[in-house]
Write a structure and sequence with these properties.
152 residues, alpha/beta, five-stranded parallel β-sheet, globular
Length: 152
């Protein structure tokens, strides 16, 4: 995976969610815009009931093709959307609910998609998780060997 550049304006982040993550997605999307990130929003675009795979697949594809440097996704528990995202080659989606987990997902797993459990995370904690994820680089070293064993 290409490292997430430290300069926000240098990259485009993908975002996607289902109806349960819609409100949190908009909060995080606004924060990212304020920080200078470009965001490509794959939906959903309302709180109407929907199916998370409809948004996860195009989001993952954009990261796979290199159109987006990384992605942030959310659904009620985060599990469904993470499972869907991880079906894509080269996607390492990590479900994170605390800053330390997000930091380790980047440092050790080179996670290129951050997944948030929208119904189970305080919005302010979610913001801190996102900021930590984006500020953390892949550590490399012994972790590269492990990442290389994940089929692409």
């Amino acid at each position: 995976m290409t490292p997430i550049p430290s300069e926000p304006a240098a990259i485009t982040l993908a975002m996607c969610c289902d109806h349960a993550g819609y409100e949190l997605k908009n909060k995080i999307k606004a924060l990212l815009g304020e920080k200078g990130y470009k965001v490509r929003d794959f939906g959903t675009h309302s709180e109407d009931s929907c199916d998370y795979p409809d948004f996860a697949h195009p989001c993952a594809a954009a990261v796979e093709r290199g159109e987006c440097a990384a992605a942030i996704a959310m659904c009620g528990t985060g599990n469904g959307i993470a499972i869907t995202l991880n079906k894509h080659q080269g996607i390492r989606a990590a479900l994170c609910w605390a800053p330390e987990i997000a930091r380790l997902a980047r440092e050790h797993n080179d996670a290129n998609v951050l997944v948030l459990p929208a119904r189970f995370i305080d919005p302010e904690v979610a913001v801190t998780v996102v900021e930590t994820y984006l500020a953390t680089a892949f550590e490399g070293g012994r972790h590269e060997r492990r990442i290389a064993k994940i089929p692409v």
